[in-house]
Design brief:
- The protein has 583 residues and is α+β, with helices and mostly antiparallel strands.
- The protein folds into 4 domains: 240 residues, PAS domain (Beta-Lactamase), CATH 3.30.450.20; 97 residues, 2-Layer Sandwich (Beta-Lactamase); 76 residues, Helix Hairpins; 144 residues, Heat Shock Protein 90 (2-Layer Sandwich), CATH 3.30.565.10.
- Helices cover 51% and strands 20% of the residues.
- It is built from 17 helices and 17 strands.
- A 5-stranded antiparallel sheet has the order 2-1-5-4-3. A 5-stranded antiparallel sheet has the order 7-6-10-9-8. The chain has a 5-stranded mixed sheet with strand order 12-14-15-17-16.
- A hairpin with a 5-residue loop joins strand 1 and strand 2.
Length: 583
């Protein structure tokens, strides 16, 4: 079907002026060549008749000279003339004088009559060249007539004696009916043109047929050259379109899988291969039921009942049992005539989108909590001050009662602890303000690690750094960033009770620009269920933790237009990645 459509477009695309132009150019050329060949053939035929007539005249003159040498009588010479004219294509052989009076004729009945009407015979006498003309008879018969001066006597002989013998021959040839002295006679040979005309007609037909054949060949050659050029241009255009479509399909930011009407995979771009953990080399040409996830194939079954288009969000299980959320659009693929060719599946990975949705939901929750916390912290601090004042009063009043002293100290400690929690809550609730200034990031990280050297040494934790020497200054709030890293260091040390390794890397962020800082430990790690809540306020797995450290760190990094990501494998360790721009 595709080839038929392509051929149809090819022929329809040929403009009609090509055919008209080919005819207008080739027809005059081949018509001229054909006419020239016909004319040449006629000239060759006439030349043959002329040469034949000239040969007959020469042979008759030779016979005449021989007869005069043997003193032939007029009857013998007349017989020679008659016998010479007996050839089937000779119509007549005659001799006239300059007045056109026939002196001798192969048919004696014509002697004495006139011949050569319309000819200047006196001029013929003075010209040495042989002449010819075509004579048409009343019955439509054409005769090729050859004539010239009749010279039976060779040059250099006695011309007078020759004239006397000729006079006697002609007188005897006509049985004494004429007695005309014959000076400067003219000989005529009439040749039948019937066979020559048939040959000319046959040659003309043959030439015209060959001309038509050559015309058709030339026309076909021009048409084929144009078709070849059009085919080449069409192929180049199709190649460019194919290259463009292949590049478009391969570089489009969403996954594409094309399946033909036999359920064979015909196309798979690199995005689809990355999402589905497949490669084009191993799946193209294979049955889709064997290589394409079942969740995607199930959408194809619903295409006929949903107007040929299905758009859904599904959880797709790819290789190794990994489940990826996908937004899928499945549609039927038809040609311009409506013939079914197959299916097209377009999809994109929603993992990041869902993560962003969760982040937005968390941000909305945190905003609500923040507004609540701002009001609660304000309301709690005033009563706490009163409670602490009363506890101090009772401690001083009952200083001589140990039990009362202990209760008062415990009340004061709990009030202070509650006040710290309220302070952290208040800090978390209010917008983070940063005062940026340029710092040498390598020196900054080295100084921040010196603050925990003693603690890491006591806990048998080894610090390892990998700081890129090409990274110099960045623009940040050093106090706020230092608060973030100290929180990360303390969390890492608390997860490595039995020692371990704390790795700090400083790298360039090639993807988004800026820098990338990784803090990695070899501690107990975080479970997959807890990993999604680590930035939520008051979420903690520590017995004495408040659950606000990472939430505050998250807000500080966001205030710097950066990102903070946590990857962890339970029982193996945790990696926190911080992305910061240069400015």
């Amino acid at each position: 079907m595709a080839n038929k459509i392509k051929n149809k477009r090819f022929w329809v695309g040929v403009p009609p002026w090509i055919f008209m132009g080919a005819v207008m150019v080739l027809f005059p050329i081949f018509a001229f060549m054909t006419l020239q060949n016909i004319t040449r053939q006629k000239e060759n035929s006439f030349r043959l008749l002329l040469e034949k007539g000239a040969a007959l005249i020469r042979s008759f003159e030779a016979g005449t000279r021989t007869g005069m040498g043997f003193s032939w009588s007029g009857v013998q010479l007349q017989k020679l003339l008659t016998e010479t004219a007996q050839q089937h294509d000779i119509v007549y052989l005659l001799v006239t004088d300059t007045n056109g009076i026939i002196l001798a004729h192969n048919n004696p009945g014509y002697i004495g009559k006139t011949h050569g009407k319309g000819l200047n015979l006196r001029r013929v006498i003075h010209e040495e060249t042989i002449k010819w003309r075509i004579v048409s008879k009343p019955e439509g018969k054409k005769i090729f007539e050859v004539f010239r001066k009749f010279s039976p006597v060779k040059r250099g002989l006695n011309v007078g004696n020759g004239h006397m013998m000729m006079q006697m021959w002609f007188q005897q040839g006509i049985n004494q009916r004429l007695d005309i002295p014959t000076f400067n006679p003219i000989i005529f040979v009439g040749l039948d043109m019937a066979s020559i005309e048939k040959a000319i007609q046959a040659d003309t037909r043959h030439t015209m047929v060959m001309g038509m054949i050559l015309l058709l060949i030339g026309f076909a050659g021009i048409a084929l050259l144009f078709f070849a050029q059009s085919y080449r241009a069409t192929r180049m255009s199709l190649s460019r379109i194919k290259a463009f479509s292949d590049s478009l399909v391969e570089n489009m930011p969403i996954g594409l899988v094309a399946i033909d009407n036999h359920r064979k995979v015909t196309s798979l771009n690199h995005v689809a291969g990355f999402i589905l953990s497949l490669s084009a080399a191993e799946v193209i040409g294979e049955n889709a039921t064997q290589v394409v996830p079942e969740e995607l194939l199930m959408l194809l079954e619903n295409l006929d009942t949903e107007k040929g288009v299905v758009e859904k969000e599904i959880d797709c299980t790819v290789r190794k049992g990994k489940v990826i959320p996908l937004e899928v659009s499945a549609t039927l693929l038809n040609d311009e005539n409506g013939m079914f060719l197959g299916y097209v599946l377009l999809f994109k990975d929603l993992s990041e989108v869902r993560s962003l949705r969760k982040e937005i939901a968390r941000s909305q929750r945190l905003a609500s909590v923040g507004r609540l916390a701002a009001g609660v912290s304000h309301e709690i601090r005033n009563p706490l001050s009163s409670i602490k004042g009363f506890a101090t009063y009772f401690k001083e009043r009952y200083h001589d009662v140990p039990e009362n002293q202990q209760i008062s100290n415990l009340m004061i400690q709990e009030v202070d602890r509650l006040n710290r929690v309220v302070g952290q809550l208040h800090e978390f609730a209010r917008p983070i303000t940063v005062s940026k200034k340029p710092i040498n990031v390598r020196t900054f990280l080295e100084n921040s690690l010196k603050l925990i050297e003693r603690q890491t040494s006591e806990a048998n934790i080894k610090i390892q750094t990998r700081l890129d020497s090409e990274i110099d200054e960045i623009l940040v709030d050093p106090d706020r960033i230092n608060q973030v890293f100290l929180n990360l260091y303390l969390n890492a040390m608390e997860s490595m009770k039995n020692g371990g390794s704390l790795n700090v890397w400083l790298l360039k962020n090639e993807e988004k620009g800026g820098i990338k800082i990784r803090v990695q430990d070899t501690g107990t790690g975080i479970s997959e269920d807890d990993l999604t809540h680590i930035f939520d306020p008051y979420f903690t797995t520590k017995a004495s933790g408040t659950g606000l450290g990472l939430a505050i760190a998250h807000n500080i990094i966001e205030a710097h237009d950066g990102e903070i990501k946590v990857d962890s494998i339970f029982g193996q360790g945790t990696t926190v990645t911080i992305l910061l721009p240069y400015t």
